[in-house]
C-alpha cells in the first residue's frame, strides 16, 4: 500500500452510498415477485429469475471488475458500474415482456455488483485487516437501513403505484449516487498506473485459490450469504402464498431481520480490533446455527406464522452481521496487494453460490415451504464445519 492510497480515504457517506446500490436493487423488488408473476402470466420460478440472473450477473462482473480495478483504478470502474445500473433501471421501468425484465435485472446486477465489490476493496486499500473488518462493519451497519426499508418501501410502492415505479425509484437513486462519486470519490488503488498485460491481472486467481485462509473465509462467507439470498427468494412466497399475508406484511416483518443484522455489525465494529476478527467470525456462525435450529423446530410445528419465521431469523441475521464483514476482511487480507482481484473472486464465488441457491429453493419452496429453513440450517452447519476443519488442519 503506497502513501497516496493511505491519504486517499473516501468519506463514510461515499462508501455507504456506493454500497447500498446492490441491496436496494435486490430487496426493493422482492415483495413484487408475486405481482410480476401475475402481470406477465409467468410461473413463480420464472419470475424468480429476476433474482437469480441478478446474482449471476453480479458474480460474473466481479470476476472482471476486481482485476481491472487493480490496473485502471477503483474510481473509473465504480462510475462505469453505476452508469450500467442506471441503464438497467430505466430498461426495467419500460419492460413489456419477461425477457426485457430479465435483461434489465442482469444490467442492474452487473452494475451494482461491481460497485459493491469495489467498495470493499477501497476500504482495504487504506486500512489494516482488523481495521478493515471494523470499517466494513461500520459501513454495513449504516447501509443496512437500505435493505431494512427496501422491502417495506417496495411493497408499498407496488401497492400504491405499481411495480414499474420501483424501477423509476432505483433510477433516481442511482443518478444521485453517480453525481456523488463523480464529485467526492478519490482514487485508492495502490498500484494504479502499473503496466502489465491485460490478461496478467487474472493470474492472481490461482494464488488466491491456493491460499487456505482465503478459501476457508470465502466458504464461510458464501454459506452465510447464500442462506440470506435463499431467504429473500423464498420468504415472499411463504408469507404471501402459503401464510396468506400481503407483500407489505413481508416488508414489515423483514425489518426484524435487518435489525438483527445491524446489531451484529455494531458488535463487529466495536469488538474487531479488541477481540480479533477470527474469533468473531466463529461466534457469528455459532449464533446463526443455534438460531436456525430454533427456526427449524418452529417450521415443523403447528404455530408456523410470519413471526415464528422471522423472529429466530433475526438472531440468525445478528450472527451474519458478525460473520460477513469479518470473513470479508480476512479473505481480502490473504493477499493485501491483490485486494481488487480478491474482492472480485470472493464476490463471484459468494454470489454464484447464492444464485444456485435461489434456483433450487425457488423450486423446492413450492413443493414444501419448510425446505427454506432446512436449507439455511444446512448452510450454517457447512460454514461451521469449514472453520473447524481449518483449525484441525492448522493444529
UniProtKB/TrEMBL annotation:
GO terms for cellular component: plasma membrane. The keyword Chloroplast does not apply. It is found in: Cell inner membrane; Cell membrane. The chain crosses the membrane at residues 12-30, 42-65, 77-96, 102-123, 135-153, 165-185, 214-238, 250-268, 280-301, 367-387. Residues 11-394 form the Major facilitator superfamily (MFS) profile domain. The keyword Cell inner membrane applies. Gene3D superfamilies: Multidrug resistance protein D. One of its GO terms (molecular function) is xenobiotic transmembrane transporter activity. It is a multi-pass membrane protein. NCBIfam families: efflux_Bcr_CflA. This is Bcr/CflA family efflux transporter. It comes from Bosea vaviloviae. The lineage of its organism: Bacteria, Pseudomonadati, Pseudomonadota, Alphaproteobacteria, Hyphomicrobiales.
